Amino acid sequence: MARKKTKSPKRNRKPVQQGFTQAKALKNQARELDRRAQAIKDAVYDLKAVNPNTKIEEDTRTPGELIEIIETQGQPVTAALAQLRQT
Predict the structure, then answer these.
(1) Could you give the 3-state DSSP secondary structure of residue 12?
(2) What is the CA 64 to chain-centroid distance, rounded?
(3) Domain ranges (residues) in the chain
(4) Is 48 helix (H, G, I), strand (E, B) or coil?
(5) Phi then psi for 56, rounded to 5 degrees?
(6) What Rg, from alpha-carbon coordinates, does the chain have?
(7) What is the per-residue pLDDT across 4-59, written as a single tens digit (0 to 9) for each?
(8) 65 SS3 class
(9) What is the spatial distance between Cα 37 and Cα 32, in angstroms, rounded to a whole number?
């Protein structure tokens, strides 16, 4: 005996698609709100390990002074190299 094929009722997929669309929109909205909250936390709670009372030390020597220091420090090296070349 052959079975009779019956048609399944048409399913209305529109509400399901709308549910997926709404879920995706809510997920994106939640991510955006999470990013905003993190930005606020970062702005309020600055947890850098920096001492605001430290004094900044700057090198105030001029290029001419630096060249003079390099030449002065290079003299012992030049003398040692000359001595090595003689032996």
Answers:
(1) coil
(2) 39
(3) 15-49+61-86
(4) coil
(5) -80, 125
(6) 38
(7) 666 666 777 888 899 999 999 999 999 999 999 999 888 877 777 788 788 888 99
(8) helix
(9) 9
